[in-house]
Amino acid sequence: MHENGSSLRARRRVLGAVAVVALAGCASVDSERLEVSLTGLSLAEAALLEQRFLLRVRLVNPSGEERRIDGAVYELAVNGQPFARGVSDQALVVPRFGEAQVDWMATGTTGGVLRQVLGFGSGRRRITYRLRVRAQSGGARLHLEGGGEIDLTALAN
Predict the structure, then answer these.
(1) For 33, which DSSP code?
(2) Considering only the top CATH level, what class is 32-156?
(3) Do 94 and 32 contact (CB within 8 A), yes or no?
(4) Spatial distance between the Cα atoms of 145 and 74, rounded to a whole number of angstroms
(5) Which helix (H) or strand (E) holds 5?
(6) Residue ranges per structural domain of the chain
């Protein structure tokens, strides 16, 4: 019985060490997180109930290891309101200490577009956006977020 108890303790120690190593590996995936930004937005298709947009997205990798993206789910919010969302199974590689650009299609509703158009009528001077991405990278899932602001008064000058 004594050998069984020590054998069980040894197994628990090994499993505990494996769990610590596995958790450290997961933490390292996010330690050098990819940076994501929206670099372009254009209307691809317009219909009465929905619109299709082409999002140009830049991914920057500050890590010394390349990152492979196998697919992504993304959402674009404008002025704090949902605007467009989409999915892509497009594979891409973001090189180490490098960047990659990708074009993703996203679908928005007429209501989302109308909310933004009506906001311009109220004298809005700035547009803010937030891009959220859940990407699949091998067996790991990456959560990325980027955003920015456009000053409309600067564009008028």
Answers:
(1) P
(2) mainly beta
(3) no
(4) 10
(5) helix 2-31
(6) 1-31, 32-156
CA angle 50, 54, 123 (to 5 degrees): 70
pLDDT at residue 55, rounded to an integer: 96
Position 126 confidence tier, pLDDT thresholds 50, 70, 90: confident
- Residue 36 CA, chain-centre distance (Å), reads 6
Residues 6+ apart with CB under 8 A from 146: 35, 36, 37, 38, 130, 131
Q: Is 73 exposed, middle or buried (0-12, 13-18, 19+ CB in 10 A)?
A: middle
**How much is the pTM?**
0.71
The enclosing H or E element of 87 equals strand 81-88
- Give me the count of residues in the chain: 157
42 membership: H or E segment, kind and range:
strand 35-46
